[in-house]
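Question (not urgent): is this output format expected?
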Amino acid sequence: MLSVRDLHVSYGGIRALKGVSLEVKRGEIVTIIGANGAGKSTLLNAVSGFLKPTKGEVLFKDQRLGRQPAKIVKLGICHVPEGRLVFANLTVHDNLLLGAYLRKDRKAIAADLERVYALFPRLKERMRQPAGTLSGGEQQMLAMGRALMTNGDLVLMDEPSLGLAPLLVQTVFDIIEEIRKLGKTILLVEQNAYKALSIADRAYVLEQGRIVKEGPACDIANDPAVRDAYLGTKSKGGGAPA
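Got this back:
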């Protein structure tokens, strides 16, 4: 479904991505893990058309993507940004409708809205509240729901658990799995490597703008170097992280 080939992205003199290549197949959850500054968010922003690569290409359903975010949304890619970026002065309901602003199918929009409210009952309870009055976890749910309202096939998620309490972190990851059950494909950037690897099918490890490891998520989770660097466990003694 998504193919990133030899992607290079620079900010001025800083090379943020240095020849990144990856594949995401329909129906998968693929996660990208790495330290702060590794280039994870840059990669998602390049796929979404917010950043222009200096080299390489991004293909979605065999169509080359350019730097046209609205067109990319129409093609079926939606983005849940880091930091949520909800419209604080608008209601929860209006924030969700903004996710569908490129769509014309009113009946389908209404059906998707009910589907989002079923997935996020808390949002339905607060549908008339300004988004800025929601808790951090509720705003994250709103950002995810807004992305689903685009009716895209591929959902890009950038640090969905960032800044959330542990109980809410588990809720967010449960919701990601529910979103996959809706028929969506997910490319997940996440610093909580343990949680991300526990729900993903495949994983890539990004370090200093380069992919240094890739494979089935369970194999990456049990890689000694990954465990030592990202999972907070030591490889001595083997076995999966506790």
